[in-house]
């Protein structure tokens, strides 16, 4: 099968011919990929940001946002059958450890993460995962239309869901970055809260999309974005800031946009937050980390998606154009999410 494999950090991946994955355990599921999302984390991997952790070992197949059709199942699989349309939670879990028993499967002690761990990802024609990762979809769903909800979607949703007790009507939420994750976060905020939504982005096209999908106010990141948000919030800042960028200085902007007693939710990564500890305690601002989400988060998000409440805006590329998709994402040319279609 064809697959997008990274052989060396700081170099583009290549399209290789490799063997198809096989069933090796009773709960294995092999999925024929119908859509694989292109994530900024894929760029970070190529750039070597994960090299120090020696994870993943090279060469390996990129891709952790995947949806498609069940191609083969292990003898113990009962929740899906060959031919079912599925979206895949990016981190298959064991179901037996204490974290899984508590419903916090993102902290499963026996999990693996295709496309990030040593297990090959889904930028390929087929992917091996597990039964516990599969969320069955309506048969009429095009996997390419929803694939990126498997990571970008639940990451955005997970952060919003955690913040719901803080966002009663009359509060203000700032979304920094209206790209692949941010445009989903905006829709989740609109669907689940009564907060006023202010969106900050450096790209006018992204801000126009934000207006169409639920933003109450938009702010161009032109160097004066912190002051603009201050003006929109009566000089106090936002009750909650969702930072889907968190690099190139955006992380400090987000902190300064957060009101005293407010919460800064960090979702993007790559930057470095430098804050005097006195500033944290004297203003009682909270810093909240967020990574992906649980199986339940994905199942809930798919209810919103299949009802049309949350829509993934995509640009589709054939699998052979994977490098073009990565370059377009890096250059800020992708509105919404880039999807590879084998």
UniProtKB/TrEMBL annotation:
<keyword id="KW-0479">Metal-binding</keyword>
<dbReference type="Pfam" id="PF08240">
    <property type="entry name" value="ADH_N"/>
</dbReference>
<dbReference type="InterPro" id="IPR020843">
    <property type="entry name" value="ER"/>
</dbReference>
<comment type="similarity">
    <text>Belongs to the zinc-containing alcohol dehydrogenase family.</text>
</comment>
<feature type="domain" description="Enoyl reductase (ER)">
    <location>
        <begin position="8"/>
        <end position="340"/>
    </location>
</feature>
<keyword id="KW-0560">Oxidoreductase</keyword>
<dbReference type="InterPro" id="IPR013154">
    <property type="entry name" value="ADH-like_N"/>
</dbReference>
<dbReference type="InterPro" id="IPR011032">
    <property type="entry name" value="GroES-like_sf"/>
</dbReference>
<protein>
    <recommendedName>
        <fullName>alcohol dehydrogenase</fullName>
        <ecNumber>1.1.1.1</ecNumber>
    </recommendedName>
</protein>
<dbReference type="Pfam" id="PF00107">
    <property type="entry name" value="ADH_zinc_N"/>
</dbReference>
<dbReference type="InterPro" id="IPR036291">
    <property type="entry name" value="NAD(P)-bd_dom_sf"/>
</dbReference>
<dbReference type="InterPro" id="IPR002328">
    <property type="entry name" value="ADH_Zn_CS"/>
</dbReference>
<keyword id="KW-0862">Zinc</keyword>
<dbReference type="InterPro" id="IPR013149">
    <property type="entry name" value="ADH-like_C"/>
</dbReference>
């Amino acid at each position: 099968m064809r697959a997008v494999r990274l052989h060396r950090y700081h170099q583009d991946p290549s399209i290789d011919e490799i063997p198809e994955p096989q069933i090796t355990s009773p709960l294995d599921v092999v999925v024929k990929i119908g859509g694989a999302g292109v994530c900024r984390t894929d760029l970070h991997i190529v750039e070597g940001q994960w090299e120090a952790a020696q994870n993943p070992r090279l060469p390996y197949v990129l891709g952790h946002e995947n949806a498609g059709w069940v191609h083969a199942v292990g003898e113990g699989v009962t929740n899906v059958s060959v031919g079912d349309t599925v979206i895949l939670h990016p981190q298959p879990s064991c179901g037996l450890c204490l974290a899984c028993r508590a419903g916090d499967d993102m902290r499963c002690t026996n999990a693996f993460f295709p496309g990030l761990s040593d297990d090959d990802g889904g930028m390929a024609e087929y992917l091996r995962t597990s039964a516990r990762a599969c969320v069955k979809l309506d048969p009429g769903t095009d996997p390419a239309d929803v694939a990126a909800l498997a990571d970008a979607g639940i990451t955005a949703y997970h952060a919003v869901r955690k913040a719901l007790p803080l966002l009663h009507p009359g509060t203000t939420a700032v979304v920094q970055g209206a790209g692949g994750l941010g445009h989903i976060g905006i829709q989740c905020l609109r669907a689940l809260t009564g907060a006023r939504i202010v969106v900050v982005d450096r790209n006018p096209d992204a801000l126009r999309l934000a207006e169409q999908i639920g933003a109450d106010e938009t702010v161009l990141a032109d160097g004066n974005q912190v002051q603009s948000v201050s003006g929109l919030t009566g000089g106090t800042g936002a009750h909650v800031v969702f930072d889907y960028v968190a690099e190139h200085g955006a992380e400090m902007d987000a902190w300064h946009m957060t009101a005293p007693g407010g919460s800064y939710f960090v979702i993007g990564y790559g930057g470095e937050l430098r804050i005097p500890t006195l500033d944290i305690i004297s203003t009682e601002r909270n810093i909240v980390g967020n990574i992906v989400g649980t199986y339940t988060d994905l199942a809930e998000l798919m209810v919103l998606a299949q009802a049309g409440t949350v829509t993934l805006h995509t640009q589709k590329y054939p699998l052979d154009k994977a490098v073009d998709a990565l370059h377009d994402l890096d250059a800020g040319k992708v509105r919404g999410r880039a999807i590879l279609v084998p």
